[in-house]
Design a protein that fits this description.
Blueprint (H helix, E strand, L loop, with lengths): L1 H24 L24 H17 L3 E9 L6 H4 L9 E10 L5 E5 H4 L2 E7 L5 E10 L4 E6 L20 E6 L7 E12 L14 E4 L11 E3 L5 E10 L5 E9 H14 L5 E2 L2 E5 L2 H7 L7 E6 L4 H4 L7 E5 L2 E2 L3 H9 L6 E8 L2 E8 L1 E2 L25 E4 L4 E5 L2 H7 L5 E6 L4 H4 L7 E5 L2 E2 L3 H10 L4 E7 L5 E7 L3
Antiparallel strand pairs: 1-2, 1-4, 2-3, 3-6, 4-5, 5-6, 7-8, 7-10, 8-9, 9-12, 10-11, 11-12, 13-20, 14-15, 15-16, 16-17, 16-18, 18-19, 21-22, 22-23, 23-24, 24-25, 24-26, 26-27
């Protein structure tokens, strides 16, 4: 009996030893110690070289140095219909008459001046600025410039970290940039991308014929709340003021953002700080870029410059003998091939400043000095109406001609037409076919053609003779709408 007990005890000891060995050996039943845990591979798959490390470090340093110069702006404002609503913010229409919104701003002086977007602070009843160090200040508006969507506000503080304002003149497409601001209520957010385009205009963000749209386009993520923040290069220089996004239906970023060039922002900010308003000079012309057909019709060797569509009566251009149909090739020696190139350059000049325009007229180039005038001194554009044409024709003799290869039908003007359009000569476009040459040039029914090939058009017969003589070439048309607005159109004429 005793031997059986000893044998049983021995068996239990042996079973315990075997079980312990099994547990120690693995089977996942005993956890290893913390120090024995090794996760992942021993080394990274790529060893960064010095250039890649330096490139990464540049982004880090810019974020560290520039972020303290960017502020968050919280605004309580009275609501009104705003052209920016659909573009920047969530498209809710039935909002309270008083609302709160937020944006960003850039500290531009140690004593509290801050540049931001006009649409951030317009209609504000109160403005609060939150600094990177978590201090809050009430702010007041120093001045606003709706034509560039810029504004300057001021807080009562000293010793602030001012941003370095760089030079936007030499920017290149493909250049790395960073956007810094406070999007979607997320403070101090940094995104990166490249400059996708420069000189971007015709976005219709500024609802004014004098509005200046000469944006830097970037794919750095910009969202509502970024407006007024900084677009910076890899030296930490501010090269733009973030202003807009190409938004989805919800108002959020889908690929591109737009910033106001810092050179324009500096000029506007200085004027607002010094005077509280902009003393901007104007040339006093309506302009349009020259396309290929227009260049051919004018005798230019290639599409270049901008054509003067209209001259404001008693404006700066009128006093300098700038005429409708003139092509502006340069301003102060700088080539201008888009409307916004001229507009943005002039927008940085004060009234009373003299600029030199290089003009192409009747196959010749020459220069004209133009002294810019303030906008308030300019009248509305008033095309000259020739009263010499006899109005005694019989409306029953009206003629109609279809130009099938152009895709346009025209007819003589009736006496009623002449009274409605306030002209004494011209012909009326009665039909334009879809996808035709005329349609491609944005010609449409109810426009009146008053000139062709720089000659007045009195009737359809005269117009037909001009078109026939220009087969295989291009003709310059001057057209007028019922509101009195005129523009030039270059139209290719098939053989």
């Amino acid at each position: 009996m005793k031997s059986k007990r000893m044998l049983g005890a021995f068996a239990l000891v042996l079973a315990g030893m075997l079980l312990g060995a099994i547990l120690v050996s693995g089977f996942g039943l005993v956890r290893p110690s913390y120090a024995d845990i090794n996760l992942g591979a021993a080394n990274p798959p790529v060893n960064l070289d010095a250039d890649a490390t330096a490139f990464s470090k540049a982004f880090i340093e810019v974020a560290e140095k520039v972020t303290p110069t960017i502020v968050r702006i919280t605004v309580v404002s009275t609501r009104k219909d705003n052209p920016h609503d659909e573009f920047f913010f969530f498209p809710f229409k039935d909002l309270p008459r008083e609302q709160q919104g937020s944006g960003s701003g850039i500290i531009i002086s140690q004593d509290g001046y801050i540049v931001t977007n006009n649409h951030v602070v317009e209609n504000a009843t109160s403005i609060e600025v939150s600094l990177y160090d978590k201090r809050d200040f009430d702010a007041k508006i120093v001045g606003r410039d709706p034509l560039t969507d810029l504004a300057v506000i001021k807080i009562d503080a000293t010793g602030l970290p001012a941003a370095f304002l760089g030079d936007s003149e030499g920017l290149k497409v493909g250049q790395w940039v960073m956007a810094i601001g406070n999007p979607l209520s997320l403070s101090s957010t940094v995104t990166a991308g490249i400059i996708s385009a420069i000189g971007r205009g015709k976005l219709n963000l500024i609802q004014d014929s004098y509005g200046v749209e000469n944006f830097i386009q970037t794919d750095a993520a910009i969202n509502p709340g970024n407006s007024g923040g900084a677009l910076v290069d890899l030296s930490g220089s501010v090269i733009g003021v973030n202003s807009a996004i190409a938004a989805s239906r919800t108002g959020t970023y889908i690929g591109y953002g737009f910033a106001i060039p810092i050179n324009l922002a500096k000029s506007v900010a200085k004027d607002l700080i010094a005077h509280g308003k902009i003393n901007r000079g104007y040339i006093g012309v309506n302009i349009q870029a020259v396309d290929a057909a227009m260049a051919k019709s004018l005798g230019l060797d290639k599409p270049k410059g901008i054509i003067v569509q209209g001259v404001l009566s008693d404006g700066a251009a009128s006093k300098a003998d700038i005429r409708e149909g003139d092509v502006i090739l340069k301003i102060d020696g700088r080539e201008v091939n888009q409307e916004n190139q001229l507009q943005s350059y002039v927008a940085a000049k004060s009234a009373g400043t003299t600029v030199k325009l290089t003009i192409f007229r009747d196959g010749k180039e020459f220069e004209k000095d133009v002294t810019l005038k303030a906008r308030d001194d300019d009248d509305t554009a008033q095309p000259v109406v020739d009263n010499s044409t006899d109005e005694s024709e019989n409306d029953s003799k009206k003629s109609t001609v279809e130009f099938d290869k152009i895709g346009m039908t025209v007819s003589d003007l009736s006496s009623v037409d002449k009274k409605e359009y306030k002209v004494n000569y011209g012909i009326k476009i009665t039909e334009v076919k879809d996808f035709s040459k005329a349609s491609d040039k944005n010609l449409f029914a109810k426009l009146v053609i008053v000139e062709a090939d720089r000659k007045k058009v009195n009737n359809v017969a005269e117009f037909k003779n001009i078109i026939t003589s220009k087969r295989g070439e291009a003709v310059l048309l001057k057209v007028r709408d019922v509101s009195g607005n005129t523009r030039f159109v270059g139209l290719d004429i098939p053989e």
